[in-house]
């Protein structure tokens, strides 16, 4: 099992969460909520209003999201879904646990130094330079006050 941190459309209540609970694609078990230890720019970009975490550590905000434990099948699905390695790159990042629901309560999270876990995150280093000038968000909601509605793949 691997840990994955999701910050965009794959979170609970968001348009692509259905993939996280589709066991035909693999297993994903919600573990808790967290945020990036380092700051990153989270932007909503492109004609489909997709959330992207730009891989520019030290810029932007501590991005909020959810921590999942996933099996190899789900990890492979997520790589494909996220267009890895072209659109997004899957890299290890340090995630500060904010709320833990994993087995044993906060025990596993507490076992990590200061509640920090290493998780795979889909961020991007391959983006148009003008994206750096877009507004930075600390969390993503497809129907947030930004007014940029996400366009589902099946509607593109």
TrEMBL record:
State whether keyword Zinc applies.
no
What are the Gamma-glutamylcyclotransferase AIG2-like domain coordinates in residue numbering? 4-122
Record keywords: Transferase included?
yes
In the UniProt entry, which residues are flagged as the active site? 82
Database matches in Gene3D superfamilies: Gamma-glutamyl cyclotransferase-like
**What family does the database annotate?**
Belongs to the gamma-glutamylcyclotransferase family.
Provide the protein name: Gamma-glutamylaminecyclotransferase
- What gene, per UniProt, encodes this protein? Ggact
